[in-house]
Amino acid sequence: MVENRPLLTFLSHFVVLSGVVIIAFPLWMTFVGSTHDQTTMLRAPLPLWPGEHMLENYRTVLFQGFGTGAARTPLYVSLLNSLIMALGVCVGKIAISIIAAYAVVYFRFPLRMLFFWLIFLTLMLPVEVRIVPTYQVVASLGMVDSYSGLIVPLIASATATFLFRQFFLSVPDELTEAARIDGAGPVRFFIDILLPMSRTSIAALFVIQFIYGWNQYLWPLLITTREGFYTVVMTLSRQVNTVDAAPTWNWIMAMAMLAMLPPVLVVVFMQRQFIKGLVDTEK
After folding, report:
1. Of 14, 85, 252, 254, which has the most beta carbons under 10 Å away?
2. Domains assigned to the chain
3. Beta-carbon count within 10 A of 98 CB
4. What would the pLDDT profile of 89-128 be if each residue is shown by its tens digit?
């Protein structure tokens, strides 16, 4: 029997609500800042309630662009670049990782475990160690200022390979034998049996890798020189770090709100699959 303790219930709810306020307040201030003009944002104290310039600010940054540098390109171009990069990275990571894990688990070829541990050891190499040789390879292949240059160097994932390998090892051997007796070859077994069973894991990795690809900054900063290939994170950073003038904070806040929208939508619409893929044990 669970005891009813009003004080403990009050404290737990107070802690939860305090955490929500702490997390949500910066987002609220960002939204409020995106609805005012530049004069109001440069005058103390900062407003706490929305203003009258919301539609004007969002229309300007989304379709017209502003200022100099990356902002001369409308923000929808940068949003499209980030969307293409994020989708390409997460789809590429999932496809390569699940095929690699399938080969390691179900095919008995020489040195297969050595190859797996070599893949796993790449987790010990930070991005900064690999960034220069990776750039040299991409530049030599003529992939600078291209979507392939943004996506291809980031699609290998040792973490996803390890997760898929652990899941495939949990699949009963009886299922494999039954598929073999029914005449299913390796490709049919992979497509008709393993892929449907892996859908929750794929959904969880999709959410994680989409956010990973969307938030990339260092690699797009190195591999792109044309404004038409700038990602939204690059565009936002360049407008914040201005030297010759005060940042236009109302437009920057509008850009930040628009930049947060796609990852939030992915998490919201795939929340159930994401949680199930992380905690489901009945696979």
Report:
1. 254
2. 70-279 (1.10.3720.10)
3. 24
4. 999 999 999 998 898 888 887 887 888 888 878 777 777 7
Encode pLDDT of 235-265 as tens digits.
Answer: 888 877 766 667 788 888 888 899 999 999 9
Query: Which token pair is 231?
Result: 């990602």
- Between vectors from CA 69 to CA 220 and to CA 224, what angle results, nearest 5°? 20
Q: Confidence class of residue 81 from pLDDT cuts 50, 70 and 90?
A: very high
Q: What is the pLDDT of residues 5-18, one digit of tens each?
A: 777 888 888 898 99
